[in-house]
Amino acid sequence: MRRTLPIVLLFLCLLECWLLYAGLSGTRATALTDLRAVWNMSGLPTWVALLWPVSIMLCGVLPRPSAVPSHRIVIALAVLGTTYSFVRDLNGWLWSNRAQVEQIEQVNQLAGENGTVLDGFSGSGALRPHTYYYWWINRYSRALMPPNAEEQILEILKQNPPAVILNDEDLQALPQIQQTIQQHYRPTNHAPIWIRQKPREPTRSIPSAVGR
């Protein structure tokens, strides 16, 4: 047991280091976006955050694993095991819904009083009537939809086009629908909000002056 605990402590330290590095370096393995923004403002390199789990591990095994009481290693395991949970809580505390509220307000303003919305899975169209029966479209809900769901959406885009489309990555995963969106809608400055393109007015040819 005394030989196993230091090995477990080392493995847990490596796991915590990987989770922290992945979250603060911008990879998709973790979701520490708000904490990452604060960390980037500090100007510190990402590896500095790894000193915390490494320090805990060293406190648990120094001066040498065979001479350290078992209860000290267990305490180090408990503290190290809660590190990532604490970091996730801190990230949640730093989170703000200001950008989401602004996006919802932008959708309401662009859609107008009776305008409908086609949303993938962004959620910013939750307060608007949806143009399709399924008010969220992602890889999970598509498994519950009828086989001709894409054809239904294409028909809706032609017959009853929504005022606003939230063209997120879930809608972008549907090539036929994406082609229609890009033909008849244009992006705004507030991604992923797209609005309908104004039909082009036919150009009038000016008769040339003859006989002048």
Structure, described:
The protein is an alpha+beta fold. The chain folds into 2 domains: 4-94; 98-196, no CATH class. The protein contains 9 helices and 4 strands; from the N terminus they run ααααααβαβααββ. The protein has helices spanning 4-24, 33-42, 51-61, 70-81, 83-94, 98-111, 149-159, 169-172, 175-184, and strands spanning 117-119, 164-166, 185-187, 193-196. The protein has a 4-stranded mixed β-sheet with strand order 1-2-4-3. A hairpin with a 5-residue loop joins strand 3 (185-187) and strand 4 (193-196). Helix 1 packs parallel to helix 4 (70-81), helix 3 (51-61) packs antiparallel against helix 4 (70-81) and helix 7 runs parallel beside helix 9. The longest helix has 21 residues, at 4-24. The radius of gyration is 27 Å and the shape is elongated. The mean pLDDT is 81.
